[in-house]
């Protein structure tokens, strides 16, 4: 895909990485140099190369160099510690690692945990320019040395449609991380969703501030943009002031972030000082935006908003909640993208009609190939011939999908099913002093599970259990009202910012004394 | 693709075929019934079903039913006679034929030419409602009987990415027709070009008047439209008055035809009587539109014009000449679509830089798999790892592709290469009394090939050889001026309207007495 893009638009600006700016010809040349260096080092189709990097042109070069040579790329989640990284290096059978200088210690630590690791090469990219020292395992070289005098011409390697382009390890809150095997054809076709549905084209100037090691930023919104010939401005992290300044200075047309990032930008004093008039589309993911935030954001940013929904196993986008429905159907996760068939299934494998609630299941050409070396989990995920998302939801009469809850977060209490998210939403609406609330089911002798709300109040306010319960009663049927309210200073989260309900359930499992 | 489209937009209008109108759910239901009937009749993945049909919902139902079951569809070119049809039935090893009633005689005649044909089933669709009689070979049934009580539920068949979806036989002017093997993944990805590049989406209302048995109408502009949820209005043939009336009555937004069809519509008295205001995009193919026609058409139709260029072996679109360049770069065939890499190659297999002229070659995921049972022609077509178009052209400094000539139509005269099309263009411009001119090289003792112009004057005008030569001299260097002018009442053409230069070369090969 990059080859063709560079061939069509050699002189167009592809990537901005700090002070470094790359045309498509230059980016493709960097990719080709690394591809040739990998081939010279003996890497072949099916070999595995791990990648520990923040958002940088070297991240992109490594991903595309793997794609061109048939090498499998394994991006490392930067929230992981050495144990998780060592697990992934071992499980993926990585032959080498590309690591940014500031992450050299993480990789060295991980390698020390692996007895007789098969990792031969550690290639250190400049990253943030940190000092680093070679570890005791593998041959450590800096990127320039590894590249040597590799040329920028196109490598010619045979790669199959269904060859893996990457193993993306899921966060694994409840078990060891699972390696999602993504094929070339899946990533190819998925990459076209954003151009097809959101009009991403060669005139787009986008910011990538969400981590490239996560499929949403990588395959959801980067590969398609670079295929259509747009420009990607890389940022290593979200910072409201820096992002607002970048939108102005780089004349950004499209951004992608979490709902809270838009809130933080709107609350920042710079919001009125920056020229945001080039923005045409702001994307968000993970969760619907609260209605008041959304209305304010549409006005403040003066552009369309849309939500992308999906998951790593689908590479990842499955539905898009488009701008024209944002206010009329607030809270929905939108319409299936053309490349994904979305169904609602009961536990027996029957597809359910519109309006009925069940597990959200997917079919389509950009589903994963399976979980690496995990046939049982793969078979379970594809039971009845559909990929099982683990999400519960329903379609409305307009064909829009509504996410209710993670299947495992639905609370079974006194013979009723209660979506934890419904209770959370009611509490947010009824009690503005709540900063964050998480609702889980905890073991209970009488109710089987009893609903519990874990609450973080807004800074500087007081909030009692009785006040929270009164708020719940004002909005919810009796059986949906929590049986207990617990207070917490902050919530446990995964690397991508998801609250770990399973950790809260574990912490508080004895609360009702069972 | 149709399954997902119907799943997303069950109640939207998919196809209009005369008085019959089909929603996506209904169209998909028809497809599924035929798929189940094929399965019940024993058809399996890899079996071959020929299809002799004008533009009708039954054509579409057969193509998609084959796609869903892994059966290979072989559309019959309706300009063929029984000998060509019998060749294709035998060469493709067709197990059955779906034929419209008015074409039953063609298929019967073809089957009689095949000794011990393997064709078991002949299924007669209503078509134009002609009387028909069962032939002597195979079991003849009407479509309703063949369908029986087949249900409309989704069939569940395993089909591979690279399984053939069709064998499309090329016209074969110089040799036996070659069967282009098109894979599912190729047609899938090619279908996305029109949505990606031309903005074809679910709001589109298109007319299909070009034959569906030709890849341009079928995979170029139909499968993508139906994937995005647009509406297709079928017409069995081009008729200027009928098309103008349909644009008005069906509120058509997009049409596709040959340059001469736009000229015929503009010259028709109804052009001023019909409301064409819904049109947003008029596509043309095969050849650039003369500049004066194009300027007039943009004004008369009040919409954007764009050209699609490609060939059957590429399934088919390779470049699009987009609206914004139509007037500034008139005569170009446009920009490569994202899914195709376009190169210019010399005879030794070297890629040439922009500006240099050579053979146009292609790479990309929607190239054909090869020619059916013809490894030599396949190897030749993919020499040096690129598909060889047989077209000669160059890229300009703006990245636009210019088609110069078919490689075999380039005239080698006195040590110089002359593009026949350049001479034709000069004659059209300099001598308005020419209706049509074809320039070929004919064997000549001194010049190796000598340039000859075959001319059809406009009706009712007189034109002499000397006048034509004077026109040529006014525009061309001496070595490009024809050595002879021959007059013809009409030109020999292929089924798709291409002038057969090879036939003219053969007819006149003795003109210079060699």
UniProtKB/TrEMBL annotation, chains A, B:
InterPro entries: AMP-bd_C (IPR025110), AMP-binding_CS (IPR020845), AMP-dep_synth/lig_dom (IPR000873). Residues 422-498 form the AMP-binding enzyme C-terminal domain. Residues 3-372 form the AMP-dependent synthetase/ligase domain. Keywords: Ligase. The keyword Ligase applies. Signal peptide: none annotated. The keyword Ligase applies. Belongs to the ATP-dependent AMP-binding enzyme family. This is AMP-binding protein.
């Amino acid at each position: 895909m990059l080859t063709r893009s560079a061939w069509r638009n050699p002189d167009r600006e592809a990537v901005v990485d700090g002070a470094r700016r790359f045309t498509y010809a230059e980016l493709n040349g960097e990719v080709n140099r690394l591809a040739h260096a990998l081939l010279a080092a003996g890497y072949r189709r099916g070999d595995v190369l791990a990648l520990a990097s923040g958002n940088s042109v070297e991240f992109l070069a490594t991903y595309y160099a793997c794609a061109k040579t048939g090498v499998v790329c394994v991006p490392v989640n930067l929230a992981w510690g050495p144990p998780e990284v060592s697990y992934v290096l071992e499980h993926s059978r990585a032959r080498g690692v590309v690591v940014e200088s500031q992450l050299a210690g993480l990789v060295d630590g991980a390698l020390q945990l692996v007895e007789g690791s098969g990792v031969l090469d550690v290639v250190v990219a400049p990253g943030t320019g940190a000092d680093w020292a070679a570890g005791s395992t593998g041959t450590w070289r800096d990127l320039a040395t590894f590249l040597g005098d590799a040329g920028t011409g196109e490598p010619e390697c045979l790669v199959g449609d269904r060859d893996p382009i990457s193993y993306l390890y899921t966060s694994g809150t409840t078990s060891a991380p699972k390696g999602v095997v993504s094929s070339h054809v899946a990533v190819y076709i998925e990459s076209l969703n954003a151009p097809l549905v959101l009009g991403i084209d060669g005139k787009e100037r986008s910011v990538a501030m969400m981590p490239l090691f996560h499929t949403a930023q990588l395959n959801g919104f980067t590969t398609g943009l670079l295929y259509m010939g747009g420009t990607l401005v890389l940022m290593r992290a979200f910072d409201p002031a820096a992002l607002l300044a970048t939108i102005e200075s780089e004349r950004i047309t499209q951004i992608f972030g979490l709902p809270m990032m838009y809130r933080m930008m709107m609350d920042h004093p710079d919001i009125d000082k920056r020229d945001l008039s080039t923005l045409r589309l702001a994307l968000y993911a993970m969760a619907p935006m609260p209605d008041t935030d959304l209305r304010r954001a549409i006005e403040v940013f003066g552009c369309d908003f849309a939500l992308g929904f999906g998951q790593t196993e689908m590479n990842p986008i499955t539905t898009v909640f488009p701008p024209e429905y944002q206010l009329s159907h607030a809270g929905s996760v939108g319409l299936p993208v053309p490349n994904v068939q979305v169904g609602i299934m009961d536990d027996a494998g029957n597809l359910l009609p519109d309006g009925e609630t069940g597990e959200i299941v997917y079919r389509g050409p950009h589903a994963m190939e399976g979980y690496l070396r995990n046939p049982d989990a793969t078979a379970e995920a594809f039971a009845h011939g559909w990929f099982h998302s683990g999400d519960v939801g329903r379609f409305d009469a307009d064909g829009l999908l509504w996410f209710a809850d993670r299947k495992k977060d639905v609370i079974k209490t006194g013979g009723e099913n209660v979506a934890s998210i419904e209770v959370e939403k009611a509490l947010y609406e009824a009690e503005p002093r709540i900063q964050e609330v998480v609702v889980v089911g905890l073991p209970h002798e009488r109710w089987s599970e009893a609903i519990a709300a874990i609450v973080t109040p807004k800074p500087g306010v007081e909030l009692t259990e009785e006040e929270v319960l009164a708020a719940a009663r004002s909005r919810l049927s009796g059986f949906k009202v929590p049986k207990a309210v617990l207070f917490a200073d902050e919530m446990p989260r995964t690397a991508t910012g998801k609250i770990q309900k399973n950790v809260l359930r574990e912490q508080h499992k004895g609360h009702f004394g069972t």
